[in-house]
């Protein structure tokens, strides 16, 4: 089977999450990705555990490094540095997330490499850009705090909360992939390469979408609302006879159906609740009514009944439950990749569906230095 990015070579100098996530996306779509790692330790995430696989590999590293080769090079050694330069110039795309200026000092920066290879696409990922924030450390948790995400996450009267995954890195990795594919399209048309730049802070501000626009377009500073939504109601978990039921009612028709299933159709005609804007304005009263109506039965009974009537509702799954749900829906969410010793490792499936050139799963994440530099 052919892949959309067959014959595309990527030199991956990135570490941890945003860069490796982006290069894994390219690798899944057919690109040949050479991961450059430091001697002895390799990517930082190789030691980020527990948890570990049965053979002692950190699952964090496993999550973003499939379909790649691993080449160990000491960029402080002249011979290894020269080899790294050869790999970079032999590639279509270079990806790096060192502090601004490091690759330039090594002779691996965009200006120097593109002077030799004008068609090179060069993706740099930083925490705060190459300007005044160049020296600031770009860790996901720090960006979640400084970028406002923690100010809108958590209970109103509780402490600011981080999201339960390094979401800023993931979003930045996705933006990076879009940028590189856009640059590739331009190069296919013109032969001209370009620099692709992403920073974690700007990526987060863009990913805050409606929360960002509340400030930029209306001057409203969003606040923490727990599990409630600033613009939609009911859009939150609500306690039942046992357990909690998540309701994601996005329009008035769905609310009317909800009220009908709960045995209170007149509630949808109450002027306090008849429209979404009214429900947002009268959220405490609406919630009290819903809690009363949901109390007779457990969430496990309400969820399938409401779903059957096309009201978005469900219980809160743990990660295992989430994968089990995906499996029950036929989404085949786990792929098993072969290791050199004959064993396999299970990893989440790439969510991109392509009818002609779908993602491929060729190899498990490589052990450190498992490959010789490509020629």
UniProtKB/TrEMBL annotation:
Q: Per UniProt, what is one Pfam family of this protein?
A: CoA_transf_3
| UniProt KW keywords | Transferase
Segments for region (Disordered): 346-375
As recorded in UniProt, coiled-coil segments are: none
Which InterPro entries does the entry mention? Answer: CoA-transferase_III_domain, CoA-Trfase_fam_III, CoA-Trfase_III_dom3_sf, CoA-Trfase_III_dom_1_sf
Q: What is this protein called?
A: CoA transferase
Transferase found in the keyword field: yes
Under PANTHER family, the record lists: SUCCINATE--HYDROXYMETHYLGLUTARATE COA-TRANSFERASE
Q: MF terms per GO, please?
A: transferase activity
Tell me the organism: Amycolatopsis acididurans
């Amino acid at each position: 089977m052919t892949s959309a990015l067959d014959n595309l070579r990527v030199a991956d100098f990135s570490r941890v999450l945003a860069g490796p996530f982006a290069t894994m996306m390219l690798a899944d779509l057919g690109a040949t990705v050479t991961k450059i790692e430091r001697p002895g330790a390799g990517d930082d995430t190789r030691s980020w555990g527990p948890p570990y696989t049965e053979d002692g590999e950190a699952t964090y590293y496993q999550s973003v490094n499939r379909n790649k080769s691993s080449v160990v090079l000491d960029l402080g050694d002249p011979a290894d540095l020269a080899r790294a330069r050869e790999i970079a110039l032999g590639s279509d795309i270079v990806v790096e997330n060192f502090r601004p200026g490091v690759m330039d000092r090594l002779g691996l920066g965009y200006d120097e490499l593109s002077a030799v290879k004008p068609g090179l696409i060069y993706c740099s990922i930083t925490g705060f850009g190459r300007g005044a924030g160049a020296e600031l450390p770009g860790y996901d948790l720090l960006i979640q705090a400084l970028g406002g995400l923690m100010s809108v996450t958590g209970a109103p009267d509780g402490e600011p909360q981080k999201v339960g995954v390094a979401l800023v890195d993931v979003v930045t990795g996705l933006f990076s992939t879009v940028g590189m594919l856009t640059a590739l399209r331009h190069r296919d048309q013109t032969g001209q390469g370009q620099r692709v730049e992403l920073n974690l802070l700007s990526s987060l501000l863009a990913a805050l979408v409606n929360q960002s626009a509340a400030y930029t377009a209306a001057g409203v500073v969003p606040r923490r609302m727990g599990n409630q939504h600033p613009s939609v109601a009911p859009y939150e978990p609500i306690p039942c006879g046992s357990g909690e039921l998540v309701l994601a009612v996005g329009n008035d028709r769905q609310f009317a159906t909800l009220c009908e299933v709960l045995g209170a159709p007149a509630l949808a005609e109450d002027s306090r609740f008849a429209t979404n804007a009214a429900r947002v304005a009268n959220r405490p009263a609406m919630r009290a009514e819903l809690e009363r109506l949901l109390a007779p039965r457990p969430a496990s009974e309400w969820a399938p009944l409401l779903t059957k009537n096309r009201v978005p509702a469900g219980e809160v799954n743990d990660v295992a439950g989430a994968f089990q749900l995906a499996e029950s829906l036929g989404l085949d969410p786990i792929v098993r990749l072969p290791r050199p010793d004959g064993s396999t490792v299970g990893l989440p499936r790439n969510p991109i569906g392509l009818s002609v050139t779908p993602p491929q799963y060729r190899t498990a994440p490589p052990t450190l230095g498992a490959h010789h530099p490509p020629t």
